[in-house]
């Protein structure tokens, strides 16, 4: 029998899981050439990493050399915060992607990268669960939405954004914009540079120059996390604006708010400020050549520095002042210190209560009062009475 390959992939729906923390996984029915059928579970971040690796393996078919030669389908980048709505809305895109993937030339659709990714894993057969936490919730794709995918001929729909101001590119890998241009976002990078396409043009664009059509605020942005995540500075930067921080390579800081424009709010000791996310690396992560190459680029512009901004939304984007960041950050740190202090006091009390009896000073017996002469004469023996006479 020849090498194994996949005949068909069908998206069944998704699961909402609560262990080790709340997350979502997609369910795929994978049909193999030996007529077996297996159900596998994959997170969207896994699928997107698989997709990026596939594009690197086949640069011609991915359109990296010439966009007209692209046959590998598009797949939008994962959102920073994947909630249930985004997980549900992405199902149609994933179903189309899987159909297009399996119908690519055999050198792609039957390569080891594709076969190995959809092979059954141990956790597919035995998902990690915890009896103390809610059981997974299953959401199956409605039957009426499972239309015949052979009828699908159009491209996967990408997110459309609008340029709020003119942008002049500074390198060949970037793309110039005019205020009002409507671009399709192919990939959102957390460093603040987004890969976009406009008609026949493609290139990197600063996220700060783009706004969504349905509102000024990015629903993908997470809320501030004043507990902070430990990061290490990989490239020095000298502050240009008053609310930015100057740091040196090797400094350890805490990220408290990740913003889509690539300028994150960080904390150094008790001082907060903006810093380019592309110059940071999560503590413990291994450095890669791709990350090193990205750091050679300049930091993207901040939205607050863009002139002649023309938004279609009456209400501006939600913004948090740097003073609010500092105040809330200090408040969080102080609360943590107080909690640690109370915890230490409780430990000390317990130690005192459990102290061994041998270590405690023993009580001394009280000295009885000296008896009077009359009492000795009346109650004591003859020999004792003679001593006081």
From TrEMBL:
This is NCF1 factor. Residues 156-215, 226-285 form the SH3 domain. One of its GO terms (biological process) is respiratory burst. InterPro entries: NADPH_Oxidase/PX-Domain, NCF1_C, NCF1_PBR/AIR, NCF1_SH3_1, NCF1_SH3_2, P47PHOX, PX_dom, PX_dom_sf. The keyword Repeat applies. It comes from the Eukaryota. Its main location: cytoplasm. One of its GO terms (cellular component) is cytoplasm. Residues 4-125 form the PX domain. The keyword Translocase does not apply. Keywords: Cytoplasm, Phosphoprotein, Repeat, SH3 domain. PROSITE patterns: PX, SH3. Residues 353-374 are annotated as: Disordered. Signal peptide: none annotated. It is found in: Cytoplasm. GO terms for molecular function: phosphatidylinositol binding; superoxide-generating NADPH oxidase activator activity.
